[in-house]
Design goal:
187 residues; HNH_5; alpha+beta; 4-stranded mixed sheet
């Protein structure tokens, strides 16, 4: 069962994956401005109202936008780099030989070698197979005569939420995918 909700700001910018309980709290306090998704993620039932004889009920949508402005501009926040997200961004393709590999057969490779001060960042990391990574060694692609078949880039907010690899509902995946920037490798 999918038990997390995509929380957005009022403008539709992804903020976080939140638990069902956190989402219910936002509904109960009146903080949900709008919601999206095909069907409710869950329906929670509470106690009975004695005066009306009706049981309380909250339908939780898989995507909710909260009232109020975000305290920071999340488009200025660079998503954290992990090996799993990097491999998904690069579609499990070696940046040097262009072959597709399983997770276990790929490595995070520094374009500008770490030994020369190359940072662990989205724009300096690519996926590489062990053979290509060893062949390139502590050289730049130009020095090794191994041009990149694709360029590294920083994923957008929407891409980052897809790259996290959560088991998400199809309607939430489609909602995020429709907002991917042109040229995204995730399309």
């Amino acid at each position: 069962m999918h038990s997390h909700v995509l929380q957005l700001d009022i403008q539709g910018t992804p903020q976080a994956w939140i638990s069902l309980e956190q989402a219910v709290l936002h509904y109960a306090t009146g903080n949900v401005a709008w919601e999206d998704g095909a069907l409710p993620l869950a329906t929670l039932r509470g106690g009975f109202n004695v005066a009306r004889g009706v049981q309380s009920r909250i339908d939780v949508a898989p995507i909710i936008a909260l009232r109020g402005a975000s305290k920071i501009n999340l488009f200025d926040v660079v998503p954290g780099v992990t090996k799993a997200k990097l491999l998904r961004r690069d579609r499990h393709t070696c940046a040097y030989c262009a072959q597709v590999f399983a997770d276990r057969d790929l490595q995070c490779e520094h374009v500008m070698p770490e030994s020369r001060g190359g940072p662990w960042s989205w724009t300096n990391l690519v996926s590489a197979c062990a053979v290509c990574n060893n062949r390139k060694a502590a050289r730049t692609p130009e020095e090794a005569g191994m041009p990149l078949v694709y360029l590294p880039y920083v994923p957008s907010r929407f891409e980052n939420f897809l790259l996290e690899g959560r088991n998400i509902r199809a309607d939430v995946h489609e909602w995020l995918a429709r907002r991917l920037p042109r040229g995204s490798r995730l399309q």
